[in-house]
Fold this protein.
Amino acid sequence: MKFPNQGGRRKPAGIATLVVAALLAFTAWHTFFIVNEWEQALVLQFGDIIGEPITEAGLHRKIPFIQDVLRYERRLLRWDGQETQTITRDRKTVVVDVTARWRIVDAKRFREAVGAERFAASRLNGIIEGAVKDEIAKYDLYEVVRSSNRILQTEEEYAATKTDEGALPPVAELVTALGSGEMPPLRQDDEGRYQAGRPEAIAGILAEARQRLERADIGIHLEDLLVKQLNYSAAIEANVYAQMNAELQKISAGFRSAGRQRAEERLGEMERELAVIQSRAQEQSERIRGEAEAVSIKIYAEAFNQDPDFYAFLRTLAAYSETLTTNTTLLIGADGPLYRGLIQPLK
């Protein structure tokens, strides 16, 4: 048995269920939104910001069809500005190329002051460029390009850098800065901290740029800053290369001087060791010779004590050999031992 009327009633009910489900899904899609860990969000109603920025990752909701969601990065963003031409305190022209990393710390203020992230670069250009010019103007050229006072200027200072084993330090630890012998050292306080130099200049640029961002109040924090390049104008480029050449010649002269000093030290040590060896050998040979002579005298004494008359005869012959030479006239008494040796036979 068929019931056509009942089947007709079920079909509109199923379509209505699908329509209601679709409307609910559509409403939920426009009501709930997800904020990722690397994002922060603003809820906008007719272009106005509603509430505080959403920085907590997870599921959030808004009024559907009336409110919108604007998302911003929480991660570090990179800024690469154009090269900045500026003048040092000693009136030298340099070209500084700087890069920096920044982040949005107040999305609400950033939206009001800047707008989109793509507009932030233009705001940072003026702020960082002004900080670079103001900070570089506080230093002389050599204070911007040098990092420390580790340039060794005397043989004594170079020799003092030798390790405990007497080996010289590697070149990489010695050639650390650009400058010439006529340039003064970088300024330091009583505790040895540098008051000038390239790291101090970079730190000063970063501090000045942060202060300017704080005064501008645009919701940006400058994380760090790096000088990629520092070039010289054509007017001072030749002078800089001459200073580099003079500095490298001075360092090479220090190496040669230290090498000669080390060679002389080794030669002196060898001569002292040789004198000690020769002295010990001479002492040992004299001792052996003395012991041998003592043994020889003992043997002679034992032999001569066996026949004293024969020993006396040999001594007389030795006396004849030493005194009687060619064309020698010898006057001896009859009672002398030489005479007795001539006329008395050996018993």
User: Anything to note?
Assistant: The chain has a mean pLDDT of 79.
